[in-house]
Amino acid sequence: MTEFSDWIIRHEAIIRLSGFFSVLLLMASWEIIAPKRVLIASKLTRWFNNFALVIFNTLLLRLLFPMAAVGFALWIEQQHWGLFNMIPIPEIIAVIIAVIMLDMVIYGQHVLFHHVPLLWRLHRMHHADVDIDVTTGARFHPIEILLSMGIKFAAILILGAPALAVFIFEMILNLMAMFNHANIRLNATWDKWMRLFVVTPDMHRVHHSVINRETDSNFGFNLSCWDRWFGTYQAQPALGHEKMQIGLLEFREPHYLYLHHLLQIPFLSYSSDNRDHSNHSNGK
């Protein structure tokens, strides 16, 4: 590992927190100056409970996974396990390939959480938000967060992903999740060219539609190519971004904005638990 990458790993927490709060402030300001949609729920209530969930998830991860993903990757390197620790390859090439492969794994995980009924029960808490803004990007059920970390650890083990690659990937994933969930108005030309490479807010917003065929599209968080290559890309919502309905039809009551009700969502039974993914006409 080079001195530069070693320095980055040693200062991981500071760099990640700085990046998080910088992008959060930028997106929150942009949402005020140039919002894409008119929000329908109390922003104060949503933000308070969404951030309470983030804090809860962070503490839970630290408790159950004392070794974070970057630390796990360092340990894997020391054990010489995984693909990139067995094949002689320049570090920069290994880092680039590992970041891309980890992004594909997260895309696949996202698809899986939509199509396996038990996993959908967990993931639907993310989709139950009746508005979509920068805080929605961090709104995931604790059990989903733990499963996601386990999948990430397995991918790091198999790939032998360099610690620097894991750090870069996690930074990109967290920052892009805030960006592509943000309620911001992006110039149409910029959006057209940006989404050739990365997931834009207009691209990902389609994924939060109440219409099943739109919910089951645009699964990517960072690179936009996976949706195009695997046939899950949809350019625009049928009703347009301003008129489309966000969320899930069965979780629209105001009490679902609060943390204790959010945590109960996976354990509630609804007729849509086993979703009909062929339903292209509505969200029922």
TrEMBL record:
InterPro entries recorded: Fatty_acid_hydroxylase, Sterol_Desaturase_Related
The Fatty acid hydroxylase domain, residue ranges: 96-232
Keywords annotated in UniProt: Membrane, Transmembrane, Transmembrane helix
Organism the protein comes from: Thioflexithrix psekupsensis
A Gene Ontology molecular function term of the record: oxidoreductase activity
BP GO annotations: lipid biosynthetic process
UniProt subcellular location: Membrane
Highest taxon in the source lineage: Bacteria
Gene Ontology annotations for the cellular component aspect, listed alphabetically: membrane
Transmembrane parts of this sequence: 13-30, 51-76, 82-102, 153-179
Keyword ATP-binding assigned: no
PANTHER family: STEROL DESATURASE
Protein's name in the database: Fatty acid hydroxylase domain-containing protein
